């Protein structure tokens, strides 16, 4: 605070009275307006921050689900118990996060924060992959939306109980779920999630083929799982559908869909990656036919460092 | 038998949704083409203020008001159409144009256009977000329902464009001999600059644009400095 200011005549300006601390914003006619706007903007920024945080956690959990699922070796009705347990535990965590997220992304805010909600793509990827491993089919958007809504409701359930306890009426539980806000799925979340699914299927096809010596298909799963009659029928008239055909179908789906106008760049990139995945699985199928015919039935590569894969098949 | 990998109905559903999205975008593009035309016409008219003495503002501004009227009409069309769809799904398509339209309205009003009958031609009136919404006949800062509106960010970005334009006007008004105008602009911009300091900004486009205000402030301060150095500041208007 040394020195002093001069006015344009060169006379030292006198400070009238002690000045308020320097950073105390000068108030003028517009200050109240800006203070209002600040409060509104802060609300938006804070909400976005919370969404981004939850989204990051959901993404991480979804990726862990996918890693667990990649330890599955064949397509069958039931995931192996240990893997199912891992998946369920992660899903329970995701449900809690979704429940916390749900009120923030209602109505107009759903698309406002769409870019901060990329976790939903990852979650779609995990859920569609799990569904594929169980049924060898692609779950549709209409089937998947209620699943995610259910998840957000489940995550909210404990809170509801607390709320109900606080209120007079404990029997109100039955009505509560109807009002619970849920996270809705957009078509883009779904499509981009399914794009990523092709990558996971490619990885699954590669490992399962390498470790079991057969192309993954529900027919193969049926033989091991005990659907004996059905499997025998399949052998007679046609080979069971394998993952190669499934990849082709998925690839065709995306090739035939019109390019989503929202983000042509991302679409193009995803499509390119999907094409590569399809071709990698094609190559696998080819190798199985050419070299597979030379290897004795039941032969699997000797992967002493590998996991349980060989043991199951050799008996 | 085992179900097919992909339910045949699924492709149709996905395809029709994407096609609907594409046609919405086409329709929006058409409306936005119109809006852009009206906005750039109005902006062009407004750029004449740099060579128009204050005494002739009234004539110029009535022309500008004509352009603004068309902006408002087209914005109404946009509002009706866009309100059928999630607002933020398509907001990025029009937000720039709407910002420009807002800035023409704010600037016109500041120069004394669109003024209430009680104070015709008064220079220095700042339209608030609510005033702008009223001028366009659309809601502002909607939170409780999903429809077309003007956002806070759009208003603030439009306002920053006005600040830039006024900093240019400060120079040209001095050229035209209207020193009082430069002084008034200086006060206005400084007040707004202080106002923007109140906001807690995040690292986004708004923050970037707000950071640019200081250059406008400096530009206008330099003009006022030149005037005061030569004792050219009109005393009575202070």
Overview of the molecule:
By secondary structure, chain A is mainly alpha-helical. Chain A contains twelve helices and no strands. Chain A folds into two domains: 29-117 and 139-185, Translin, domain 1 (Methane Monooxygenase Hydroxylase, Chain G, domain 1), CATH 1.20.58.190; 186-220 and 229-297, Up-down Bundle (Methane Monooxygenase Hydroxylase, Chain G, domain 1), CATH 1.20.58.200. In chain A, 64% of the residues lie in helices and 0% in strands. Mean pLDDT of chain A is 81; it is low at 162-177, 220-237 and 309-315. Chain B is mainly alpha-helical. Chain B has two domains: 12-150, Translin, domain 1 (Methane Monooxygenase Hydroxylase, Chain G, domain 1, Up-down Bundle); 153-238, Methane Monooxygenase Hydroxylase, Chain G, domain 1, CATH 1.20.58.200. Chain B is 69% helix and 0% strand. Chain B is built from eight helices and no strands. The chains are: A mainly alpha (315), B mainly alpha (238). At the A-B interface, helix 1, helix 3 and helix 10 of A face helix 1, helix 3, helix 5 and helix 6 of B. Chain B: One of its GO terms (biological process) is RNA metabolic process. Chain B: This is Translin. Chain B: It is found in: Cytoplasm; Nucleus.
């Amino acid at each position: 605070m040394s020195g002093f200011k001069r006015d344009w005549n060169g006379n030292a300006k006198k400070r009238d009275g002690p000045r308020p601390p320097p950073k105390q914003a000068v108030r003028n006619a517009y200050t109240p307006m800006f203070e209002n706007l600040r409060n509104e903007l802060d609300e938006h920024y804070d909400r976005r921050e919370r969404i981004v945080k939850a989204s990051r956690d959901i993404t991480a959990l979804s990726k862990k689900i996918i890693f667990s699922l990649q330890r599955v070796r064949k397509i069958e009705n039931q995931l192996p118990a240990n893997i199912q347990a891992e998946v369920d535990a992660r899903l329970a965590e995701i449900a809690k996060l979704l429940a916390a997220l749900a009120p923030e992304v209602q109505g107009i805010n759903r698309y406002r924060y769409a870019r901060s909600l990329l976790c939903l793509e990852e979650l779609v990827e995990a859920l569609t992959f799990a569904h594929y491993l169980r049924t060898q089919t692609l779950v549709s958007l209409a089937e998947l939306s209620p699943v995610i809504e259910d998840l957000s409701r489940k995550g909210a359930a404990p809170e509801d109980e607390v709320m109900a306890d606080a209120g007079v009426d404990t029997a109100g539980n039955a009505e509560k779920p109807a009002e619970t806000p849920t996270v809705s799925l957009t078509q883009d979340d779904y499509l981009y999630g399914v794009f990523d699914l092709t990558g996971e299927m490619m990885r699954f096809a590669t490992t399962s083929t390498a470790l079991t010596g057969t192309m993954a298909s529900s027919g193969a799963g049926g033989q091991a799982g005990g659907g004996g009659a059905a499997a025998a029928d399949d052998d007679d008239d046609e080979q069971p559908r394998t993952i190669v055909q499934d990849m082709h179908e998925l690839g065709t789906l995306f090739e035939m869909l019109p390019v989503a106008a929202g983000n042509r760049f991302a679409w193009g990139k995803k499509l390119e990656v999907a094409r590569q995945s399809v071709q990698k699985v094609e190559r696998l199928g080819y190798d199985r036919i050419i070299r597979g015919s030379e290897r004795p039935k039941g032969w699997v590569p000797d992967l002493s460092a590998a996991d349980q894969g060989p043991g199951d098949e050799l008996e | 038998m085992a179900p097919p990998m992909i339910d045949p109905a699924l492709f149709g559903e996905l395809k029709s949704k994407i096609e609907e999205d594409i046609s919405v975008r086409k329709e929006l593009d058409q409306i936005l083409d119109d809006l852009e035309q009206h906005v750039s016409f109005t902006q062009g008219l407004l750029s004449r203020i740099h060579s128009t003495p204050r005494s002739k503002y009234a004539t110029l501004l009535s022309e500008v008001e004509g352009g603004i009227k068309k902006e408002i009409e087209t914005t109404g069309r946009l509002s009706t159409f866009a309100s059928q769809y999630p607002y933020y799904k398509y907001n990025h398509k029009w937000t720039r144009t709407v910002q420009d339209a807002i800035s023409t309205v704010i600037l016109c009003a500041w120069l004394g256009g669109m003024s209430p009958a009680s104070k015709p031609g008064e220079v220095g009136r700042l339209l608030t977000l609510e005033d702008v919404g009223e001028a366009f006949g659309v809601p502002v800062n909607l939170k409780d329902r999903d429809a077309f509106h003007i956002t806070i960010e759009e208003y603030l970005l439009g306002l920053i464009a006005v600040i830039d334009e006024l900093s240019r006007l400060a120079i040209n008004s001095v050229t035209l001999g209207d020193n009082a105008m430069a002084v008034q602009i200086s006060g206005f911009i400084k007040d707004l600059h202080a106002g923007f300091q109140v906001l807690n900004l995040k690292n986004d486009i708004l923050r970037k644009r707000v950071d640019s205000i200081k250059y406008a402030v400096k530009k206008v301060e330099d003009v006022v400095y030149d005037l005061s150095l030569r004792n050219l500041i009109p005393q009575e208007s202070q």
